[in-house]
Amino acid sequence: MAVTTSPLRPPSRAPELIIPRPEPGSGVIVLSDNLPALQALPAESVRLIYIDPPFNTGSRRTLTRLRTVSDPENGDRVGYQGRRYHTVRLGSLSFEDVFDDFLAFLEPRLLEARRLLTPDGSLFVHLDYREVHYCRVLLDAIFGRQSLINEIIWAYDYGARSRRRWSPKHDNILWYARDPKGYVFRYDAIDRIPYRAPGLVGPEKARRGKTPTDTWWQTIVSPGGSERTGYPTQKPIALLERIVRVHSDPDDVVLDFFAGSGTAGEAAARHGRRFLLVDSNPEAVHTMEQRLAAWHPAVINRS
């Protein structure tokens, strides 16, 4: 598949959309197509961008929220020790994940992302096996091959197993720095993980733990856990907290323009960063408003 690499110029600006800079300890949520929203932002204004774009699965991504209540007489499912329960549908959240030309959709948005990064800023693009190789070639053209600092593998072990192939249980996160010789990497903020054989490294190292590699083992958001918002493709907060802590400083602006359930915004807010979240799905924006209410975000509706 050929990748178009020129002209590498952002499209014209969209001055009619005015997005204020997020207040300290808070953020901004924008209901809009993300391209005009990005075009309305000033250059070199964002330290960290994380995006989790649609994976181009070729289908509609839907998550139906359910609740079960005890119903010994008419329950439609059987639980522990034969107890019967009735299923209550709480509603569904969904979005279309089909693109005829995925790269043509992403390219102008990635060009804007580079324009918005501060000279020491970073972009993290969260993908899976379907499009990661094509996107990497496109990003190399936009940022330069030397700007790829890491391809991070997020590995998890949850869900069904295939009988026809090795079950895919990882995502790919591409980290590009605007300047490969100077970027934010707060080594002391990295969370430590236990040694598997602590007796071999001595008590001091065992107590401190070791830094993760480029393969991150982290469970998905539990379907029944308190973290769950009900939005499809929600990513775990621990994953985003690691990125936010290490690749930005307190009071920096963290941007996610495929914001979905707002995980990047919560990770930013928890650690004293400002958040700027953009999504074109009203259901996503409603989810983010509820999730981030404690930080009193400003909400802009351009739909």
Give an overview of the whole structure:
With 303 residues, the chain is α/β, with parallel strands linked by helices. 22% of the residues lie in helices and 27% in strands. Helix 2 runs parallel beside helix 3 and helix 5 (237-247) crosses helix 6 (263-270).
Give the topology, please.
Layout: E1 27-31, H1 34-39, E2 46-51, E3 59-70, E4 77-78, E5 84-97, H2 102-116, E6 117-127, H3 132-143, E7 148-155, E8 170-177, H4 203-208, E9 215-217, H5 237-247, E10 253-256, H6 263-270, E11 274-279, H7 282-291, E12 298-301
Parallel strand pairs: 1-11, 1-12, 2-6, 2-10, 7-9, 10-11
Antiparallel strand pairs: 3-5, 4-5, 6-8, 7-8
Name a few traits of the molecule.
303 residues, three-stranded antiparallel β-sheet, disordered N terminus, 7 helices, alpha/beta, 27% strand, nine-stranded mixed β-sheet
Q: Main sheet, how many strands, which sense, barrel?
A: 9 strands, mixed
- Structural class, from helix and strand content? alpha/beta
Order of helices and strands: EHEEEEHEHEEHEHEHEHE
Report the average pLDDT across residues: 85
Strand elements, count = 12
Radius of gyration: 21 Å
The parts where pLDDT drops under 50 for at least 5 residues are 1-12, 61-66, 90-95
Tell me the β content: 25-35%
Strand order of the largest sheet: 9-7-8-6-2-10-11-1-12
- Cα end-to-end separation: 34 Å
The backbone outline, from C-alpha atoms, is: globular
Helix content: 10-25%
Number of helices: 7
